[in-house]
Specification:
alpha/beta, six-stranded parallel sheet, about 15% strand
Length: about 200
């Protein structure tokens, strides 16, 4: 199995961190795409500093995911159009954008493909592959709702970053795990990250 994870500038860096650590621990092959705005949010929310270029991001990723992350995670530059991710002929099983910002949502919904993250999302839609949008914004205006509806109608899975509370979470991480567990459910990856209703 091979997955693409896109991280954008919306609030919710702990969601991305938890998903990547899960993939890393399970030795799941992952392609990683980071926007510049995401680096600012990561710095604010989980206190990790990244260098000014993809070459300088390695230490930040080691702290965020794991020291040997590069064994299972391949980092791509958003401007690298020679990347295999730019072509529909390169097969991946699913793509998760977590968290997904308003900017990225709009770009995907309108088919802009102005960077590698947006291009790969467009490929997933046109190839009818699994695309998971973990949207993080509130309140929502009509434009947001129209874009989410359009992507849902095209086959994308829209998972708002909205944790449940019936399992009585005691920590922020337990709330994060709930959302990641639901993401993994959509990907049909067995997990025990959260207590399911009735358990």
């Amino acid at each position: 199995m091979s997955y693409v994870v896109g991280i954008t500038g919306a609030s919710g860096a702990p969601y991305a961190q938890t998903l990547l650590r899960y993939f890393y621990q399970k030795k799941i092959s992952t392609h990683l795409l980071l926007t510049k705005a995401s680096l600012q949010v990561i710095k604010e929310e989980i206190d990790l500093e990244f260098g000014p270029s993809p070459q300088g991001w390695r230490k930040g990723l080691e702290k965020m995911i794991g020291r040997e992350y590069f064994k299972h995670i391949c980092l791509h530059d958003l401007e690298d159009w020679h990347s295999p991710l730019a072509s529909g002929s390169y097969k991946t099983d699913a793509m998760i954008i977590i968290p997904c910002s308003v900017h990225t949502l709009s770009a995907i919904a309108t088919g802009q493909s102005s960077n590698l993250l947006e291009r790969r999302a467009d490929i997933m839609l046109k190839e009818k592959k699994t695309l998971v949008i973990v949207f993080r914004e509130m309140p929502l205006n009509s434009i947001h709702l129209e874009h989410l509806l359009k992507l849902s109608q095209m086959g994308a899975h829209v998972l708002p970053a909205a944790p449940g509370f019936y399992h009585h979470p005691k920590t922020i991480q337990e709330m994060v795990d709930f959302v990641i567990g639901r993401v993994l459910d959509v990907l049909e990856i067995p997990n025990a990250l959260y207590k399911r209703w009735g358990e």
